[in-house]
Amino acid sequence: MVVFRIRASHRRRYAVLFLFIAGFILCRYIGLPSGRNLSRKEGLSVNSSQFTLSGEPFRIIGGSLHYFRVPKAYWKDRMLKMKACGINTLTTYVPWSLHQPERGVFHFHKQLDLEAYLNLAADVGLWVILRPGPYVCSELDLGGLPSWLLRDENMKLRTTYPGFTDAVNTFYDKLVPKMVPLQFKKGGPIIAVQLENEYGSYAVDNNYMDFVKQALLSRGISELLLTSDNHEGLKDGGVNGALRTINLQKLKNEDMMLLHFLQPKKPVMVMEYWTGWYDGWGDLHHVFPPEDMVAVVREILRQGMSINLYMFHGGTNFGFTSGAVESPSYKPIITSYDYDAPLTEDGDYTPKYHLLRDLFSRYHSEKLPEMPVIRWKEGYEAAIMYQHLSLWDSLPFLEKPFKSQTPVNMENLPVNNGNGQLYGYTLYETMISSGGSLKSGNSIRDRAIGERTLSLLVENCGRVHYGKTLDLQRKGLIRDIFLNNKPLRDFTIYSLDLNPAFIDRLYRAPWKALPLAPSFPGFSLGRLFVDGYPSDTYVKLPGWSKGVVFINGQNLGRYWHIGPQQALYLPGPFLNGGINEVLVFEEHEADLKVLFEDSPDLGMTVDIQ
Q: CB-side exposure of 31: number of CA atoms within 13 Å?
């Protein structure tokens, strides 16, 4: 045996070197910033039961954060809070419907600047799993698919129907080249890309998933490909060349056994661990007890799996972006996407966050970053609504109405450069000579308000975001309406999508002083004064019924007295120091004021079962 003798000074040097190497290896395993110096020749790999990144063991501790649900000014704040919790990977969907609102029109700037968002994630020190659809679900209108696809009466969404695949190819021609340079092996943060979303629960075309895969590969995507499915779709949602992952809220042995059977000796990842749930109008607010949530996360990590928290921070369904459920009956999703996530809708810490931070800290060799300070919330003086405009007086400020013998659904109206109406309301008017029995059957989607001259104001409350009826989500009057068993004819149709151009024109309308008994549907106008630098606040509308709130032209989303949500989140960046315009479209009845308070109100709660 040979014995080496090392002087004390040298021993101290070797001890420091040993600790540095050990820490570096551990950082590589859990994906801390030192991993940024890894070789970029080999990305995320699944050659054994453990992920590797550049050949080194790696565990994904991820969190979902959607750029389209968080004001751009707050992107970095939310990312830093992720990092401080111990998250090493950010996951995000890419909503096709927002990026391509019309054929040939693409938006990748301002709030939808995906490249800036991903580069910011890299700067903060987060890897990225990109989920570009084309269908994403995510409780978005039509699951993130653009509604103009439904202008084709033969459309078969999420299939290899040429009308759909041609549209996907056009979108990917714009999207994917922006993503290719941001891949891991090219020096960027993207370590994996998901194909579609929970296709196993849809599974109507055996060739579709391979089409999506080839659409990405042929355009230069070279990182690890993933699929994700819940337990009911796990068997049918996979495709050769992509790692299957699972979505769940409770860990069940039979699900894990099926996953191991379908792909033995592969790493296991829970792509969506549901930290809470979404709410529908008329429901209670769903909550998932923090102790129950963290117990499952702890067990997932104990078993050596990787995890992505869906959602880590939910944010807000601003405007008309929220979807709807179809089962057991149609129900639209609320404006808030708080989701009972570890970070609240306005970015505050919750007990879930603190429990997770404590848990994740045990998987890091270094102390986690300090938690960023939370942002101040402000209560402001109420905005007194001093002017009023009836719906009928607003009609001259809409686009020219469309004349039609028969009803025409929203998607097929000749508006928006031939792309149909995307969201909002449609007003159908026709002359009737007498009263009688009006029968609509299932011809109205979703809600109508009618009076004589017969005027039907039909709202698209949100297209279904999940299930096998996506092809049937046309809105407005989709078939004949009968009066005394005779179909109504000769319609004048107004597209009331409440888009920014219309809201701008509306300020020039002949507003009147608010009468004691204003007529509705109609618009009310008031002003909010902000003294100094604007802070986040919450809009509350006691005494109002149902409608939409605009602040400085920005659509905050729907409110509805049936709840559960009783306050709309108003981020500080949407406000100006000084005077702010408050515009409310109300369907039925209204108070004279709008309140601005410093706390949310998501309604009465119910535990998720």
A: 28
pLDDT tens track for 351-364: 999 999 999 999 99
The encoded tokens of residue 73 equal 């000014």
> What count of Cα atoms within 13 Å lies in the side-chain half-sphere of residue 601?
17
Tokens of residue 494, six digits = 């107004």
Condensed to tens digits (0 to 9), the pLDDT of residues 65-94 reads 999 999 999 999 999 999 999 999 999 999
- Give dist(CA 556, CA 569) in Å, integer: 8
Decide which of 40 and 70 is more confident. Answer: 70
Give how far the C-alpha of residue 531 lies from the chain's centroid of Cα atoms, to the nearest Å.
32
For the segment 144-198, what is each residue's pLDDT rounded down to a tens digit?
Answer: 999 999 999 999 999 999 999 999 999 999 999 999 999 999 999 999 999 999 9
- Please, what is the Cα angle at 255 between 228 and 361, to 5 degrees? 70
In this structure, what are the phi and psi dihedrals at residue 429, rounded to the nearest 5 degrees?
Answer: -125, 140
- Nearest by Cα to 408 from 321, 343, 478: 478
CATH 3.40.190.10 is held by the domain 29-361: no
The DSSP annotation for 454-473 comes to EEEEEE----B-SSS-GGG-
Strands 52-53 and 56-57: antiparallel
Side chain identity, residue 362: R
With 60 as the cut, is the pLDDT of residue 468 above it? Answer: yes
d(CA 157, CA 180): 26
23 neighbors 167 (Cβ within 8 angstroms): no
Closest CA to 112 of 52, 173, 68: 68
How much is the pLDDT for 443? 80
Q: How far apart are the first and last CA of the chain?
A: 64
**Which sign, positive or negative, has the C-alpha torsion 402, 404, 407, 409?**
negative
Mean pLDDT of 122-136: 98
Is-contact 79 65, C-beta < 8 A?
yes
Q: Is 326 known to be catalytic?
A: no
CATH assignment of 380-386+514-607, among 2.60.120.260, 2.30.30.320, 3.90.79.10, 1.10.760.10: 2.60.120.260
> Which of 94, 542, 555 is closest to 316 using CA atoms?
555
272 among known catalytic residues: yes
The full set of domain ranges for the chain reads 29-361, 380-386+514-607, 392-500
Residue 48: per-residue pLDDT: 87
Q: Tokens at residue 600, please?
A: 């949310």
Using a 10 angstrom Cβ sphere, with 0-12 exposed, 13-18 middle and 19 or more buried, the burial of residue 465 is: buried
Residue 442 has what pLDDT?
Answer: 80
Q: Which of 198, 326, 345, 378 is catalytic?
A: 198
Selected from 3.20.20.140, 1.10.455.10, 2.60.320.10, 2.60.120.260, the CATH number assigned to the domain covering 392-500 reads: 2.60.120.260
pLDDT exceeds cutoff 90 at 238: yes
- Rounded to an integer, what distance in angstroms lies between the CA atom of residue 450 and that of residue 3? 96
Residue of 66, 63, 76, 62 whose CA lies nearest to 31: 62
Average pLDDT over residues 28-54: 74
* Same fold across 380-386+514-607 and 392-500: yes
Question: Of these residues, 139, 196, 223, 272, which one is catalytic?
Answer: 272
Closest CA to 335 of 53, 556, 16, 61: 556
3-class state of residue 371 by DSSP: coil
Mean pLDDT of the chain: 93
